[in-house]
Protein backbone atom coordinates (compact mmCIF):
# COMPACT_ATOMS: atom_id res chain seq x y z
CA UNK A 1 0.00 0.00 0.00
CA UNK A 2 1.32 3.45 -0.84
CA UNK A 3 0.29 6.77 0.66
CA UNK A 4 1.02 10.23 -0.69
CA UNK A 5 0.03 13.53 0.91
CA UNK A 6 -1.93 15.88 -1.30
CA UNK A 7 -2.39 19.60 -0.60
CA UNK A 8 -5.94 20.91 -0.64
CA UNK A 9 -5.46 22.94 -3.79
CA UNK A 10 -4.00 20.03 -5.75
CA UNK A 11 -6.64 17.40 -5.05
CA UNK A 12 -7.86 16.06 -8.38
CA UNK A 13 -11.47 15.31 -9.11
CA UNK A 14 -12.30 11.60 -8.47
CA UNK A 15 -13.21 10.69 -12.04
CA UNK A 16 -12.79 13.30 -14.74
CA UNK A 17 -16.03 14.58 -16.25
CA UNK A 18 -18.12 12.93 -13.52
CA UNK A 19 -19.76 15.17 -10.95
CA UNK A 20 -19.82 14.07 -7.32
CA UNK A 21 -23.58 14.38 -7.36
CA UNK A 22 -24.21 12.10 -10.33
CA UNK A 23 -26.63 9.30 -9.57
CA UNK A 24 -25.41 5.71 -9.71
CA UNK A 25 -27.34 5.06 -12.92
CA UNK A 26 -26.01 8.19 -14.61
CA UNK A 27 -22.48 7.46 -13.43
CA UNK A 28 -22.56 3.93 -14.81
CA UNK A 29 -23.95 5.16 -18.11
CA UNK A 30 -21.26 7.82 -18.42
CA UNK A 31 -18.52 5.35 -17.55
CA UNK A 32 -19.83 2.83 -20.06
CA UNK A 33 -19.90 5.53 -22.77
CA UNK A 34 -16.36 6.49 -21.91
CA UNK A 35 -15.31 2.84 -21.91
CA UNK A 36 -16.69 2.41 -25.41
CA UNK A 37 -15.19 5.60 -26.81
CA UNK A 38 -11.75 5.13 -25.25
CA UNK A 39 -11.53 1.36 -25.34
CA UNK A 40 -11.64 1.21 -21.54
CA UNK A 41 -11.60 -2.31 -20.10
CA UNK A 42 -14.12 -3.54 -17.53
CA UNK A 43 -11.40 -4.76 -15.18
CA UNK A 44 -7.69 -4.13 -14.77
CA UNK A 45 -5.70 -0.94 -14.29
CA UNK A 46 -7.94 2.11 -14.84
CA UNK A 47 -10.87 -0.14 -15.73
CA UNK A 48 -14.57 0.63 -15.37
CA UNK A 49 -15.04 -1.24 -12.09
CA UNK A 50 -11.98 0.41 -10.54
CA UNK A 51 -13.31 3.88 -11.27
CA UNK A 52 -16.76 3.04 -9.91
CA UNK A 53 -15.22 1.57 -6.74
CA UNK A 54 -13.03 4.67 -6.35
CA UNK A 55 -16.04 7.01 -6.42
CA UNK A 56 -18.04 4.93 -3.93
CA UNK A 57 -15.15 4.78 -1.45
CA UNK A 58 -14.33 8.47 -1.70
CA UNK A 59 -17.99 9.43 -1.25
CA UNK A 60 -18.17 7.25 1.88
CA UNK A 61 -14.96 8.74 3.30
CA UNK A 62 -16.24 12.26 2.73
CA UNK A 63 -19.35 11.33 4.68
CA UNK A 64 -17.24 9.99 7.54
CA UNK A 65 -15.13 13.13 7.94
CA UNK A 66 -18.26 15.28 7.77
CA UNK A 67 -19.66 13.26 10.66
CA UNK A 68 -16.36 13.51 12.55
CA UNK A 69 -16.06 17.29 12.20
CA UNK A 70 -19.75 18.02 12.58
CA UNK A 71 -20.14 20.22 9.52
CA UNK A 72 -20.17 19.93 5.73
CA UNK A 73 -17.31 20.81 3.44
CA UNK A 74 -16.94 24.57 2.86
CA UNK A 75 -19.38 25.30 5.72
CA UNK A 76 -18.48 28.58 7.46
CA UNK A 77 -19.10 26.88 10.81
CA UNK A 78 -15.75 25.15 10.47
CA UNK A 79 -13.72 28.36 10.57
CA UNK A 80 -13.83 28.63 14.37
CA UNK A 81 -14.50 25.00 15.23
CA UNK A 82 -10.95 24.21 16.36
CA UNK A 83 -10.59 21.51 13.71
CA UNK A 84 -11.03 21.47 9.95
CA UNK A 85 -10.18 19.59 6.75
CA UNK A 86 -6.64 19.83 5.46
CA UNK A 87 -6.52 18.20 2.06
CA UNK A 88 -6.28 14.47 1.55
CA UNK A 89 -3.83 11.59 1.42
CA UNK A 90 -3.74 9.35 -1.60
CA UNK A 91 -3.82 5.67 -0.67
CA UNK A 92 -3.71 2.60 -2.91
CA UNK A 93 -5.91 -0.18 -1.58
CA UNK A 94 -6.20 -3.68 -2.98
CA UNK A 95 -9.81 -4.57 -3.75
CA UNK A 96 -11.70 -7.35 -5.49
CA UNK A 97 -11.36 -5.40 -8.75
CA UNK A 98 -7.64 -4.72 -8.35
CA UNK A 99 -5.67 -1.83 -6.81
CA UNK A 100 -7.71 1.35 -6.40
CA UNK A 101 -6.22 4.73 -5.62
CA UNK A 102 -8.44 6.70 -3.26
CA UNK A 103 -8.09 10.07 -1.57
CA UNK A 104 -8.55 9.84 2.20
CA UNK A 105 -9.47 13.24 3.70
CA UNK A 106 -7.45 14.53 6.69
CA UNK A 107 -8.15 16.99 9.51
CA UNK A 108 -5.88 19.55 11.14
CA UNK A 109 -5.98 17.91 14.56
CA UNK A 110 -5.17 14.50 13.14
CA UNK A 111 -8.02 12.89 15.09
CA UNK A 112 -10.00 11.59 12.10
CA UNK A 113 -10.00 7.77 12.05
CA UNK A 114 -11.63 6.52 8.85
CA UNK A 115 -13.59 3.27 9.18
CA UNK A 116 -14.50 2.37 5.61
CA UNK A 117 -10.83 2.45 4.62
CA UNK A 118 -8.92 2.25 7.91
CA UNK A 119 -5.41 3.55 8.50
CA UNK A 120 -2.74 1.08 7.37
CA UNK A 121 -5.41 -1.12 5.80
CA UNK A 122 -3.92 -2.87 2.76
CA UNK A 123 -6.88 -4.79 1.40
CA UNK A 124 -10.57 -3.94 1.14
CA UNK A 125 -12.77 -6.86 0.15
CA UNK A 126 -16.54 -7.04 -0.28
CA UNK A 127 -16.87 -3.67 -2.01
CA UNK A 128 -19.99 -5.01 -3.71
CA UNK A 129 -21.63 -5.55 -0.31
CA UNK A 130 -20.86 -2.00 0.73
CA UNK A 131 -22.38 -0.60 -2.44
CA UNK A 132 -25.44 -2.76 -1.85
CA UNK A 133 -25.69 -1.51 1.73
CA UNK A 134 -25.37 2.14 0.77
CA UNK A 135 -27.99 1.58 -1.89
CA UNK A 136 -30.10 0.65 1.13
CA UNK A 137 -32.65 -1.63 -0.43
CA UNK A 138 -34.91 -0.83 2.45
CA UNK A 139 -32.22 -1.48 5.08
CA UNK A 140 -32.41 0.65 8.21
CA UNK A 141 -29.35 2.56 9.39
CA UNK A 142 -28.91 0.00 12.17
CA UNK A 143 -28.93 -2.84 9.65
CA UNK A 144 -26.36 -1.05 7.50
CA UNK A 145 -24.14 -0.58 10.54
CA UNK A 146 -24.40 -4.27 11.33
CA UNK A 147 -23.66 -5.14 7.71
CA UNK A 148 -20.50 -3.02 7.61
CA UNK A 149 -19.38 -4.47 10.93
CA UNK A 150 -19.86 -8.00 9.61
CA UNK A 151 -18.20 -7.42 6.23
CA UNK A 152 -15.42 -4.99 7.17
CA UNK A 153 -15.16 -5.29 10.93
CA UNK A 154 -15.76 -1.54 11.04
CA UNK A 155 -17.76 0.09 13.83
CA UNK A 156 -19.70 2.81 12.00
CA UNK A 157 -22.27 4.92 13.82
CA UNK A 158 -25.84 5.42 12.63
CA UNK A 159 -25.07 9.12 12.28
CA UNK A 160 -22.21 8.31 9.91
CA UNK A 161 -24.52 6.11 7.85
CA UNK A 162 -27.09 8.91 7.79
CA UNK A 163 -24.46 11.41 6.66
CA UNK A 164 -23.28 9.09 3.89
CA UNK A 165 -26.76 8.23 2.62
CA UNK A 166 -27.92 11.85 2.81
CA UNK A 167 -25.41 12.62 0.07
CA UNK A 168 -27.73 10.66 -2.22
CA UNK A 169 -30.14 13.60 -2.10
CA UNK A 170 -27.84 15.79 -4.20
CA UNK A 171 -27.69 13.09 -6.86
CA UNK A 172 -31.44 12.61 -6.65
CA UNK A 173 -32.12 16.31 -7.17
CA UNK A 174 -29.96 16.34 -10.29
CA UNK A 175 -31.59 13.13 -11.56
CA UNK A 176 -35.10 14.43 -10.87
CA UNK A 177 -34.50 17.65 -12.83
CA UNK A 178 -32.50 16.25 -15.75
CA UNK A 179 -33.71 16.93 -19.31
CA UNK A 180 -35.77 14.15 -20.88
CA UNK A 181 -36.32 13.07 -24.49
CA UNK A 182 -38.68 15.04 -26.73
CA UNK A 183 -40.83 11.99 -27.49
CA UNK A 184 -41.50 8.58 -25.94
CA UNK A 185 -43.52 5.75 -27.50
CA UNK A 186 -45.06 4.75 -24.15
CA UNK A 187 -45.30 6.10 -20.62
CA UNK A 188 -46.36 3.84 -17.74
CA UNK A 189 -47.61 5.74 -14.70
CA UNK A 190 -48.51 4.48 -11.25
CA UNK A 191 -48.60 5.56 -7.61
CA UNK A 192 -47.43 3.59 -4.57
CA UNK A 193 -48.62 4.40 -1.06
CA UNK A 194 -46.04 4.77 1.72
CA UNK A 195 -46.46 5.58 5.40
CA UNK A 196 -44.98 8.98 6.35
CA UNK A 197 -44.89 10.35 9.89
CA UNK A 198 -45.20 14.11 9.39
CA UNK A 199 -47.12 15.07 12.53
CA UNK A 200 -49.07 11.83 12.33
CA UNK A 201 -48.55 8.62 10.38
CA UNK A 202 -50.56 8.65 7.16
CA UNK A 203 -50.57 7.07 3.72
CA UNK A 204 -48.96 9.25 1.07
CA UNK A 205 -48.70 8.42 -2.65
CA UNK A 206 -45.33 8.29 -4.38
CA UNK A 207 -45.90 8.96 -8.09
CA UNK A 208 -43.68 7.04 -10.53
CA UNK A 209 -43.35 7.62 -14.28
CA UNK A 210 -41.53 5.06 -16.40
CA UNK A 211 -40.87 5.60 -20.11
CA UNK A 212 -39.91 3.36 -22.98
CA UNK A 213 -37.41 5.15 -25.20
CA UNK A 214 -37.37 5.05 -29.00
CA UNK A 215 -34.38 2.69 -28.65
CA UNK A 216 -36.34 0.29 -26.46
CA UNK A 217 -34.69 1.18 -23.16
CA UNK A 218 -36.43 1.64 -19.82
CA UNK A 219 -36.10 5.09 -18.28
CA UNK A 220 -37.56 6.16 -14.93
CA UNK A 221 -38.34 9.83 -15.52
CA UNK A 222 -38.93 10.78 -11.90
CA UNK A 223 -40.65 10.24 -8.55
CA UNK A 224 -42.90 12.67 -6.72
CA UNK A 225 -44.46 12.64 -3.25
CA UNK A 226 -48.10 13.66 -3.23
CA UNK A 227 -50.54 14.44 -0.44
CA UNK A 228 -53.54 12.35 0.52
CA UNK A 229 -54.74 9.77 -1.99
CA UNK A 230 -53.69 9.49 -5.62
CA UNK A 231 -55.30 12.27 -7.64
CA UNK A 232 -55.61 13.34 -11.28
CA UNK A 233 -54.87 16.94 -10.26
CA UNK A 234 -51.44 15.97 -8.98
CA UNK A 235 -50.79 13.90 -12.09
CA UNK A 236 -51.43 17.07 -14.12
CA UNK A 237 -48.69 18.75 -12.12
CA UNK A 238 -46.32 15.81 -12.82
CA UNK A 239 -47.06 15.83 -16.56
CA UNK A 240 -46.58 19.60 -16.73
CA UNK A 241 -43.18 19.28 -15.05
CA UNK A 242 -42.14 16.61 -17.54
CA UNK A 243 -43.20 18.84 -20.42
CA UNK A 244 -41.14 21.66 -18.95
CA UNK A 245 -38.16 19.27 -18.85
CA UNK A 246 -38.48 18.74 -22.61
CA UNK A 247 -41.09 16.03 -23.15
CA UNK A 248 -43.20 17.30 -26.05
CA UNK A 249 -44.99 14.18 -27.27
CA UNK A 250 -46.14 10.81 -25.90
CA UNK A 251 -47.73 8.28 -28.22
CA UNK A 252 -49.49 6.20 -25.57
CA UNK A 253 -49.85 6.43 -21.80
CA UNK A 254 -50.83 3.36 -19.78
CA UNK A 255 -52.44 3.83 -16.36
CA UNK A 256 -54.61 2.09 -13.79
CA UNK A 257 -57.86 3.86 -14.71
CA UNK A 258 -57.79 6.75 -12.25
CA UNK A 259 -60.78 9.03 -12.81
CA UNK A 260 -59.82 12.34 -14.40
CA UNK A 261 -56.41 11.14 -15.56
CA UNK A 262 -57.25 11.15 -19.31
CA UNK A 263 -58.27 14.82 -19.05
CA UNK A 264 -54.99 15.63 -17.29
CA UNK A 265 -53.03 13.91 -20.08
CA UNK A 266 -55.00 15.68 -22.81
CA UNK A 267 -54.27 19.05 -21.22
CA UNK A 268 -50.51 18.52 -21.56
CA UNK A 269 -50.22 16.18 -24.57
CA UNK A 270 -53.42 16.46 -26.68
CA UNK A 271 -52.47 13.70 -29.15
CA UNK A 272 -51.62 11.08 -26.54
CA UNK A 273 -53.74 7.91 -26.42
CA UNK A 274 -54.62 6.90 -22.84
CA UNK A 275 -54.90 3.15 -22.25
CA UNK A 276 -56.42 1.71 -19.07
CA UNK A 277 -54.66 -1.38 -17.72
CA UNK A 278 -56.83 -4.44 -18.41
CA UNK A 279 -55.37 -6.27 -15.41
CA UNK A 280 -56.51 -3.47 -13.12
CA UNK A 281 -59.97 -3.59 -14.67
CA UNK A 282 -60.18 -7.31 -13.94
CA UNK A 283 -58.95 -6.88 -10.37
CA UNK A 284 -61.46 -4.10 -9.74
CA UNK A 285 -64.19 -6.29 -11.20
CA UNK A 286 -63.45 -9.00 -8.65
CA UNK A 287 -64.03 -6.52 -5.83
CA UNK A 288 -67.74 -6.49 -6.71
CA UNK A 289 -68.10 -10.26 -7.03
CA UNK A 290 -68.21 -13.20 -4.65
CA UNK A 291 -64.94 -15.10 -4.56
CA UNK A 292 -66.53 -18.30 -5.86
CA UNK A 293 -67.48 -16.41 -9.06
CA UNK A 294 -64.05 -14.95 -9.82
CA UNK A 295 -62.97 -17.67 -12.22
CA UNK A 296 -66.31 -17.59 -14.06
CA UNK A 297 -66.20 -13.79 -14.41
CA UNK A 298 -62.60 -13.86 -15.63
CA UNK A 299 -63.55 -16.46 -18.25
CA UNK A 300 -66.61 -14.45 -19.31
CA UNK A 301 -64.59 -11.20 -19.68
CA UNK A 302 -61.68 -12.70 -21.60
CA UNK A 303 -63.50 -12.58 -24.98
CA UNK A 304 -64.04 -8.85 -24.39
CA UNK A 305 -60.39 -7.84 -24.05
CA UNK A 306 -59.13 -10.38 -26.61
CA UNK A 307 -61.63 -9.31 -29.29
CA UNK A 308 -60.18 -8.47 -32.75
CA UNK A 309 -61.70 -4.97 -32.73
CA UNK A 310 -63.92 -2.60 -30.74
CA UNK A 311 -67.18 -3.72 -32.38
CA UNK A 312 -66.49 -7.35 -31.54
CA UNK A 313 -65.51 -6.34 -28.00
CA UNK A 314 -68.83 -4.57 -27.56
CA UNK A 315 -70.72 -7.67 -28.73
CA UNK A 316 -68.87 -9.83 -26.22
CA UNK A 317 -69.46 -7.25 -23.48
CA UNK A 318 -73.22 -7.23 -24.16
CA UNK A 319 -73.14 -11.00 -23.80
CA UNK A 320 -71.35 -10.61 -20.46
CA UNK A 321 -73.91 -8.02 -19.38
CA UNK A 322 -76.78 -10.35 -20.24
CA UNK A 323 -75.20 -13.21 -18.27
CA UNK A 324 -73.94 -11.32 -15.21
CA UNK A 325 -75.51 -7.85 -15.26
CA UNK A 326 -78.39 -8.74 -12.97
CA UNK A 327 -76.17 -10.31 -10.31
CA UNK A 328 -73.26 -7.86 -10.57
CA UNK A 329 -74.48 -4.54 -12.05
CA UNK A 330 -71.49 -2.73 -10.48
CA UNK A 331 -69.10 -4.69 -12.72
CA UNK A 332 -71.07 -3.64 -15.79
CA UNK A 333 -70.97 0.02 -14.72
CA UNK A 334 -67.22 -0.27 -14.04
CA UNK A 335 -66.52 -1.41 -17.60
CA UNK A 336 -68.93 1.07 -19.12
CA UNK A 337 -67.23 3.97 -17.30
CA UNK A 338 -63.78 2.77 -18.38
CA UNK A 339 -64.75 1.81 -21.94
CA UNK A 340 -63.28 4.87 -23.69
CA UNK A 341 -59.87 4.22 -22.11
CA UNK A 342 -60.13 0.43 -22.39
CA UNK A 343 -60.69 0.08 -26.16
CA UNK A 344 -57.73 2.01 -27.71
CA UNK A 345 -55.36 -0.99 -27.75
CA UNK A 346 -57.92 -2.99 -29.77
CA UNK A 347 -57.09 -0.81 -32.79
CA UNK A 348 -53.49 -2.03 -32.92
CA UNK A 349 -51.85 -5.26 -33.97
CA UNK A 350 -50.79 -7.93 -31.51
CA UNK A 351 -47.21 -6.62 -31.11
CA UNK A 352 -48.49 -3.36 -29.64
CA UNK A 353 -51.42 -4.91 -27.82
CA UNK A 354 -49.35 -7.22 -25.68
CA UNK A 355 -47.15 -4.45 -24.28
CA UNK A 356 -49.77 -1.78 -23.60
CA UNK A 357 -52.78 -3.76 -22.39
CA UNK A 358 -51.46 -3.68 -18.82
CA UNK A 359 -49.04 -1.89 -16.50
CA UNK A 360 -47.03 -5.11 -16.07
CA UNK A 361 -43.99 -3.34 -17.49
CA UNK A 362 -43.81 -1.14 -14.39
CA UNK A 363 -44.77 -3.85 -11.91
CA UNK A 364 -41.20 -5.13 -11.48
CA UNK A 365 -40.15 -1.60 -10.57
CA UNK A 366 -43.07 -1.28 -8.17
CA UNK A 367 -42.19 -4.61 -6.56
CA UNK A 368 -38.65 -3.39 -5.81
CA UNK A 369 -40.00 -0.16 -4.35
CA UNK A 370 -42.57 -1.98 -2.19
CA UNK A 371 -39.91 -4.34 -0.88
CA UNK A 372 -37.75 -1.42 0.23
CA UNK A 373 -40.72 0.46 1.70
CA UNK A 374 -42.03 -2.55 3.64
CA UNK A 375 -38.62 -3.11 5.21
CA UNK A 376 -38.67 0.41 6.63
CA UNK A 377 -42.31 0.38 7.78
CA UNK A 378 -42.83 4.13 7.85
CA UNK A 379 -40.68 7.20 7.31
CA UNK A 380 -40.13 10.28 9.48
CA UNK A 381 -40.71 12.66 6.58
CA UNK A 382 -41.23 12.98 2.85
CA UNK A 383 -37.51 13.36 2.14
CA UNK A 384 -36.66 10.06 3.83
CA UNK A 385 -39.35 8.26 1.83
CA UNK A 386 -38.17 9.69 -1.48
CA UNK A 387 -34.55 8.82 -0.65
CA UNK A 388 -35.51 5.19 0.02
CA UNK A 389 -37.47 4.94 -3.24
CA UNK A 390 -34.69 6.62 -5.21
CA UNK A 391 -32.02 4.25 -3.89
CA UNK A 392 -34.25 1.27 -4.68
CA UNK A 393 -34.57 2.52 -8.26
CA UNK A 394 -30.83 3.09 -8.59
CA UNK A 395 -30.15 -0.52 -7.58
CA UNK A 396 -32.39 -1.99 -10.29
CA UNK A 397 -30.78 -4.47 -12.69
CA UNK A 398 -27.22 -4.50 -11.25
CA UNK A 399 -25.99 -7.06 -13.83
CA UNK A 400 -27.49 -5.34 -16.86
CA UNK A 401 -29.21 -8.55 -17.99
CA UNK A 402 -32.64 -7.03 -17.43
CA UNK A 403 -31.78 -4.15 -19.75
CA UNK A 404 -30.87 -6.61 -22.52
CA UNK A 405 -34.10 -8.59 -22.09
CA UNK A 406 -36.13 -5.38 -22.01
CA UNK A 407 -34.59 -4.06 -25.24
CA UNK A 408 -35.10 -7.37 -27.00
CA UNK A 409 -38.71 -7.57 -25.87
CA UNK A 410 -39.52 -4.08 -27.20
CA UNK A 411 -37.81 -4.47 -30.57
CA UNK A 412 -40.88 -5.77 -32.44
CA UNK A 413 -43.42 -3.46 -30.70
CA UNK A 414 -41.34 -0.38 -31.51
CA UNK A 415 -41.25 -1.36 -35.17
CA UNK A 416 -45.04 -1.55 -35.02
CA UNK A 417 -45.16 1.87 -33.33
CA UNK A 418 -43.07 3.34 -36.15
CA UNK A 419 -45.70 2.17 -38.64
CA UNK A 420 -48.81 3.00 -36.59
CA UNK A 421 -47.57 6.48 -35.61
CA UNK A 422 -45.72 7.39 -38.79
CA UNK A 423 -43.70 10.56 -38.45
CA UNK A 424 -43.91 10.96 -34.66
CA UNK A 425 -40.92 8.79 -33.75
CA UNK A 426 -38.46 10.20 -36.26
CA UNK A 427 -35.02 11.38 -35.07
CA UNK A 428 -36.12 14.97 -35.61
CA UNK A 429 -38.53 14.55 -32.71
CA UNK A 430 -35.81 13.42 -30.32
TrEMBL record:
<dbReference type="GO" id="GO:0004803">
    <property type="term" value="F:transposase activity"/>
</dbReference>
<dbReference type="Pfam" id="PF00872">
    <property type="entry name" value="Transposase_mut"/>
</dbReference>
<keyword id="KW-0814">Transposable element</keyword>
<keyword id="KW-0815">Transposition</keyword>
<feature type="region of interest" description="Disordered">
    <location>
        <begin position="1"/>
        <end position="20"/>
    </location>
</feature>
<dbReference type="GO" id="GO:0006313">
    <property type="term" value="P:DNA transposition"/>
</dbReference>
<dbReference type="InterPro" id="IPR001207">
    <property type="entry name" value="Transposase_mutator"/>
</dbReference>
<dbReference type="GO" id="GO:0003677">
    <property type="term" value="F:DNA binding"/>
</dbReference>
<comment type="similarity">
    <text>Belongs to the transposase mutator family.</text>
</comment>
<comment type="function">
    <text>Required for the transposition of the insertion element.</text>
</comment>
<protein>
    <recommendedName>
        <fullName>Mutator family transposase</fullName>
    </recommendedName>
</protein>
<keyword id="KW-0238">DNA-binding</keyword>
<keyword id="KW-0233">DNA recombination</keyword>
